[in-house]
Amino acid sequence: MFRNVAELVELAESQNIKISEVMIRQEMKVRGQTREQVISAMDQNLTVMEEAIEKGLKGVHSLSGLTGGDAVLMQEYIKKGKFLSGQTVLDAVSKAVATNEVNAAMGTICATPTAGSAGVVPGTLFAVKEKLDPTRDEMIEFLFTAGAFGFVVANNASISGAAGGCQAEVGSASGMAAGAIVEMAGGTPSQSAEAMAITLKNMLGLVCDPVAGLVEVPCVKRNAMGAANAMVAADMALAGITSRIPCDEVIDAMFKIGQSMPSALRETAQGGLAATPTGRELEAKIFGVSLGKSEE
């Protein structure tokens, strides 16, 4: 039904429906399922996300010892009331971290669009839930909207860190979340596309450099920043701010940037933070041997 963001927005606007509805109809067609079946499957994804956040906010730690407990620290910080950023943004950060800490601790998460970037969409969703008080159906629609933007990226660029760097993972997740936030807040399909473009532009070139090859450092905190980025971009779009570069061109630029990235910066743990002295020390501590060389 749609191949790019321009076509997605055109379908929504010409039929006077939400982006989420466009995606629901496409899923029904592609899967050969009823509306009830498609929505039920997404409802299950929502439940997995909710349970992951709840588990993460209770405090979890990975087997490697690299990550864990930061979501709890952020919630405790929020409760003190002395934070500098907005409460909704920090709540999104905490819940994004919670989800990815559960992933690092070998818990169950919903890849959105990947396991390494699984915190951004649920983190922002359950943060704006506290402010917008959506129904369960509206929360499910949020996920379909995010999925629509993710569908475009997956088919026109990449959602793989190994193929395109972390811009393709956390960057894509952030754009997906921003577009969905805008729709839930009452924005137009065009504004959702602007939010996606603004978000993704600010994550272009983000490398994938997991320390010790594990999806923990810096992955968990990148989800935190991705969630914050999505929240701010959504507010910008809702304020009427637009991207001078169309969303589809931003996605194409991300693809080309990913193609030009050296392999050392695409999930191989051979460069970036993974190759720092501390990164190599952590790798040796976990595995008993460092597999690479420190960058001087």
Question: How is this fold's topology laid out?
Answer:
Layout lengths: L4 H11 L3 H13 L3 H24 L11 H10 L7 H18 L15 H13 L3 H21 L4 H4 L5 H15 L4 H13 L17 H20 L8 H14 L16 H11 L9
Topology pattern, helix = H, strand = E: HHHHHHHHHHHHH
Query: Structural class, from secondary structure content?
Result: mainly alpha
What's the number of helices?
13
CATH architecture: Orthogonal Bundle
Biggest beta sheet summary:
none
Beta strand %: under 5%
CATH class: Mainly Alpha
Instruction: Estimate the global geometry from the Cα principal axes.
Output: globular
Mean pLDDT: 97
Uncertain residue ranges: none
Count of structural domains:
1
Secondary structure: helix percent:
55-70%
* SS elements, strand count: 0
Rg estimate, integer Å:
19 Å
What name is given to the CATH topology?
Answer: 2-methylcitrate dehydratase PrpD
C-alpha termini separation: 51 Å
Care to describe what's here?
This protein has 296 residues and is mainly alpha-helical. It has one domain: Orthogonal Bundle (2-methylcitrate dehydratase PrpD). It is 63% helix and 0% strand. It has helices spanning 5-15, 19-31, 35-58, 70-79, 87-104, 120-132, 136-156, 161-164, 170-184, 189-201, 219-238, 247-260, 277-287. Helix 2 (19-31) packs across helix 3 (35-58), helix 3 (35-58) crosses helix 7 (136-156) and helix 7 runs antiparallel to helix 9. The chain starts with a helix and ends in a 9-residue tail after the last helix. The mean pLDDT is 97.
Short synopsis of the structure:
The chain has 296 residues and is an all-alpha fold. The protein is 63% helix and 0% strand.
